[in-house]
Amino acid sequence: IRCWSNIPFITVPLSRAHGKSFAHRSELKHAKRIVVKLGSAVVTRGDECGLALGRLASIVEQVSMLQNQGREMMIVTSGAVAFGKQRLRHEILLSQSVRQALHSGQSQLKDMAIPVLEARACAAAGQSGLMALYEAMFTQYSICAAQILVTNLDFHDEQKRRNLNGTLHELLRMNIVPIINTNDAVVPPPEPNSDLQGVNVISVKDNDSLAARLAVEMKTDLLIVLSDVEGLFDSPPGSDDAKLIDIFYPGDQQSVTFGTKSRVGMGGMEAKVKAALWALQGGTSVVIANGTHPKISGHVITDIVEGKKVGTFFSEVKPAGPTVEQQAEMARAGGRTLAALQPEQRAEIIYRLADLLTDHREEILLANEKDLQEAENKGRLALPLLKRLSLSTSKLNSLAIGLRQIAASSQDSVGRVIRRTRIAKDLELEQVTVPIGVLLVIFESRPDCLPQVSALAIASGNGLLLKGGKEAAHSNQILHHLTQEALSIHGVRDAVQLVNTREEVEDLCRLDKLIDLIIPRGSSQLVRNIQKAAKGIPVMGHSEGICHVYVDTDASVEKVTRIIRDSKCEYPAACNALETLLIHRDLLRTPLFDQIIDMLRVEQVKIHAGPKFASYLTFSPSEVKSLRTEYGDLECCIEVVDSVQEAVEHIHKYGSSHTDVIITENEKTAEFFLQHVDSACVFWNASTRFSDGYRFGLGAEVGISTSRIHARGPVGIEGLLTTKWLLRGDNHVVSDFSEHGSMKYLHESLPLPQRNAN
């Protein structure tokens, strides 16, 4: 028997074999039986007198939602003392005001003193009201709640333990939510606590222990402990270096420094950790989280059950590798070392990676074949994604060529002076290029993205976190291994990290203190999800690639079919493939129009008619459902416009600001189109497929950005750099430049240093 406080804990609970707790957060969604422990700080108001009704209502709503999903929910609650204190204060004030009004007059009302309220009396006065409140709230969701009061003595008597166990099982069987609390009206009084302004709240440590005891006794799958802090920190919350611990493992106590307890209650974080570890040993998974934060309290319980990264998760299974937080810190440290290397050294790493891609071609293709085989066997990937997943000898050769282009163009990317100004005599200012920091690149079905993005990060001195889709796991693994091998020649192996843990993308997007920029590479749905999930981290990319080709009345017959075929058929799954073909009205029923249609049919392109195009035809193709559709396959929409102005208006209304093309021999019309279409890439008599970092001579790209801030279009090395200001002075102070000071501002532009001719 082990004892904490005055509750004995039997190592093997009655009629319970040792269970197995969940190893990963993602498994918590399978939790059937759940205990939610509400600490005093969660249930009570900030003035410690009365309940936080809005917060409590939100918790009841979440518990009800989970209960109605078929789960078995139990609540271990505090709050009776606070509720009773509120009621007794009101009664005392009312009683005193009546007596003083009768004997002393109104003038002495302001001098009334409220006596110290004894905690057990508060509990007795508040227990019925607290339960009535829970019942009223649960009734709103057609759920019945039942109250169970226990004392420490109930756990000493074997028969009482059996009775308690039987009662709880019977309530759960009847779909009733048990609400359990210590019977604070009869427990021995705790030690006085001056922080509570004369009122002692019954030990929260008892409720932590009670929750753990009940969780194990009832063979619960999950115990959620809600407090007033985000979870468990490695040092007291609020201290400069305090970091939230995402996952806590048995034996990690030595790495934690515990602080003081919460504003109310007797139990601090140390008591919660002890209770959590005991429950974990008994086979119950535990999460400690914040139940008071207004931004998350409304969904904290459901988020935990859904497996989201909230609070601290207690697990007995320690992963073989580092956590994603540790990987991000390693990437930042490695990136700073990388940025400090000479440009020739960074280029040498990229050249080495290009050579490794060629030297290990067979191993890469073998791993890729394994991914393709698994994807086909599971049948979960659409044809466009399968095409993106596939690697070939020609793809690897193109990759190697692109990487060498990056290496050659990266010689003066980091630390390049882009502005020099003489502020005053002997005071010179420089603006220089520097890395952004740590990049998170999330990509699906594109293993060739890994070496491309890695090379760009290396060239720009950025740390890099890579999160690839599980469908490309084998390919990504070997490509990342080769990348780290190349980085090792200058001791910066950790600068590029591949996230292999079971992290949800949404959780990665919350690491705003560790990640500086997110770059999604994948479907429009993936990009939209990331843009929605990112909290405080900028996202570079485009959600859709709705690219247009406008065929003008002055278009060349020879150029039209050639450009359209290349734009649509060369690689229809690409984001820069043609999706909507705009035809000038005067070209309808002409030989040129017939040639376009015949070519698309030969290439087996399915045609969807826009509303105006359909109105001109007796028997038209299927009418398009939306003019904002990215097909990503051998499909496209054809629509009719009356002029180049209408083509521009159509693109602005239905396009995605990605890539748009005009085919015409009229230079004036072409220039109007080039100047007025507000897209990242606008072309004249050229395929949409030229919208690519490699084809632009950037070597490769991390993606194509349609945003208007920082980088736009194919993003190469320049798009992964920002700037900082360097000021070199000699005992300069601002007061010298005041009206009566001795110095004057010059603000003279100075010549830039010569760039590397190579």
Automatic annotation (TrEMBL):
Main subcellular location: mitochondrion
Residue ranges of domain Aspartate/glutamate/uridylate kinase in the record: 32-290
CC terms in the record's Gene Ontology section: mitochondrial matrix
UniProt entry tagged with the keyword Nucleotide-binding: yes
One GO BP annotation of this record: amino acid biosynthetic process
The protein's Enzyme Commission number: 1.2.1.41, 2.7.2.11
Function comment: Bifunctional enzyme that converts glutamate to glutamate 5-semialdehyde, an intermediate in the biosynthesis of proline, ornithine and arginine.
HAMAP family: ProA, ProB
Protein name: Delta-1-pyrroline-5-carboxylate synthase
Gene name, Swiss-Prot/TrEMBL: Aldh18a1
